[in-house]
Amino acid sequence: MIEDEHGLRFTGLAVGYRRTSVHTGLTGRARRGELTVLVGPNGAGKSTLLRTLACLQPPIAGTVRLDGTDLAGIAPMERARRLAVVLTDRVDVGLLSGRELVAIGRHPHTGPSGRLGPRDLAVVDDAIAAVGAGHLVGRRVAELSDGERQRVLTARALAQEPGLLLLDEPSAFLDVAARVALLGMLRDLARERHMGVVVSTHDLELALRLADHVWLLDRTGLRCGSPEELVVNGAVAAVFDTPALAFDPVSGTFTLADGSAGRPALVVAEQPHRALAARALARAGWRVVPTSPADAQIEHIGGDRFVVRHAGRITTVESWAALVAWARRVPAPQPTAAAMAAGTEER
């Protein structure tokens, strides 16, 4: 079987500074038409890996190929026509407008004169439209918010017409809505333009929801696969679980690791009320179980109202706040005489 050479592929890669390796033996790929997300703990070397893949620092060992061509053997200007990079570093662009910044992306294509021809101008307009930045590019870049600036920088990278787009922490300073919008936009661009897009982020939960492919990097090395594969085989939990936090593969979120010690409650509700009730009860020291037996049954009866069955009593609560208040004031079950006797014998 002949390997598909399209996209980014690196093998036996050692990354670091001078002769000091941060990682060795890294192997992975990013396919055209897919969003690949690089995640890992702080200090894992994500930026070092991306900078090496972008040829901004040389590898200590190994090869990096794009569409079958070794990037180390390509002249810088040709390389800039094949891949584009957006870093977290805030570069002072002076008084440039958004459109002028996007137009800089055409530099690898314009030759010594630097003049933009009709096709260059059309590519700039297309890049601006692709990221939805038409209302931003008439303003100075210095006046833009972090989210707006990120869109303009992405348009500048698209203006290079690359086969591969690398972005280091593009959502670092964005609010939740802007982070979701940015990653969704990058996923759409990968598919619509059939290019590889590689993004590093600290937002693991968002990465698992939106990525086609995940690179999971920690001090032990690089694990690659679909989000589902890395969750099911335990790789995500192995990297991110701590004594205080545990990754829940069902919800794709982190929970307090001691949640299993809570009193069991059975929630009878449709989504999203079931998930929201489980979260509210967990804050009050309970844990939701899928079936009986349980210390309490909480049934959603419409709106924000619940019927609670506990210790032979039936209580109706009229709001989410009332549900949490009930859960907090219910005393923990007292040990039975048999349990107390067993404890005495153990001592």
UniProtKB/TrEMBL annotation:
GO terms for molecular function: ATP binding; ATP hydrolysis activity. It comes from the Bacteria. Keywords: ATP-binding, Nucleotide-binding, Translocase, Transport. The keyword Transport applies. Residues 8-244 form the ABC transporter domain. The keyword Repressor does not apply. InterPro entries: AAA+_ATPase (IPR003593), ABC_transporter-like_ATP-bd (IPR003439), P-loop_NTPase (IPR027417). SUPFAM superfamilies: P-loop containing nucleoside triphosphate hydrolases (SSF52540). This is Iron complex transport system ATP-binding protein.
